[in-house]
Amino acid sequence: MANFKIYSVNPETKENVILFYDNQTSLLTNSEGRSLVSQLQVTPQSNAPVTSRDTPLGKTSPRILKISLGLSCNYECEYCSQRFVHRSDETNPDDVAEFISRLDDWIKSPPDAIEFWGGEPLVYIKTLRPLADEIRRKFPVTRLSVITNGSLLTPEINQWLDETGFVVSISHDGPGQHVRGPDPLADPGKRVAILDLYSRLSPSGRISFNSMVHRENQSRAEIQKFFVDLTGDRHVPIGEGAFVDAYDEGGLALSLPIEDAAYFRGMAFHEIRSSQVRSISGVRDRLMSFINSLRTRRPASSIAQKCGMDSPEALAIDLRGNVLTCQNVSAVSFAPNNESHRIGHVTDLANVKLNTSTHWSMREECPDCPMLQICRGACMFLEGDLWSASCDNSYSDSVPIFAAGIEFLTGLIPVRIEGPHRLSRHDLWPSKPHNSKRVIPIKAAPASASAA
User: Fold this and answer.
1) For residue 101, what is the domain's CATH number?
2) How many domains is the chain partitioned into structurally?
3) Which of 138, 184, 291, 352 could form a disulfide with 151 if both were Cys (CB 3.0 to 4.6 A apart)?
4) Is 312 domain-assigned?
5) What is the C-alpha to C-alpha distance for residues 122 and 258, in angstroms, rounded to an integer?
């Protein structure tokens, strides 16, 4: 059982208070052992599946189905998770009829959601349209969604997406887009098409802009302001909003340097406290999830990986029926543990084995990390230096959410956490004297925390 001693401070009175937190049982107590959060009575949560190379996970008829159309894209973004993935042979419109004809063989009930993925999915519009039309006829109430860079939108495609009932996310990093790659908003025609789709879908809540945070795009408040200014909608939905995982050298280069951790954490915490990032779901949803973990005493054993692809009912496939680790890989690519990302075929779901993933409980640091309930293990198939960088990114990304959740429930701001995790992570807002932009949530750490 991992227990953590939290040195905290009341921002109004500057009083120093010690709290205790157990990341396995989500119990937050004072120095007398009294719980600081009233427990909500909820249905007991079942254990999440634990998967690894040696204990692979099976798959069933999907509740969430992710269909990869291929990995081709008209852009080449700097930290794209698919940039160095080996490509399978391309699928085409001729594959649609056979794919649809076999759905009943392995889908036993209508999925809750079906997602269409690329590359850039609209590169495959000649395949996507007949495929989605057939799926919509077969599953009239299933949620259909697509993530696009927006550069290939046209009035005709916009109308089709609207009439077919798509939920659309447009990948764009706002003020940091120039680092990511080309900016479709710089092209007048593409900008008009993107805003046309936004005006069509926003009344029904079926569109968002998806932005990632990275070392050159650290302020979520600036990201939110960018899209408010773009759309004129102060409630514009912004998806994602988390710090990038380091899938390759591009993601590694845009990871957060250790020496910048203090500034990023402090700024992110300030933006949450001052309500400057209300539209960003990656903050809002994780904050509420953490608060609810304390309210419901959520056991760590119930925590699945953050992507959800370790669920038996979450299935990623290509049009040839190959079952994949996730939508960002191909049937001919390999995971860092040297297992194929092709983990089976839909004609034989009973023998699909997710052996490319490592559950957080089997990582060295995750079980002893105070941010576990927020981070949920970073990317499930990364290993080595890339996983370590992603872990560091996720830790610093989780700290402001952890602090905001504790303050919301107790009025206290954590400044130091002592426990079994790495010593360099004990101070939440480490000093960085050479950075004139240093931002911390309080005037100074309490003496007890500093001396600890």
Assistant:
1) 3.20.20.70
2) 1
3) 184
4) yes
5) 38
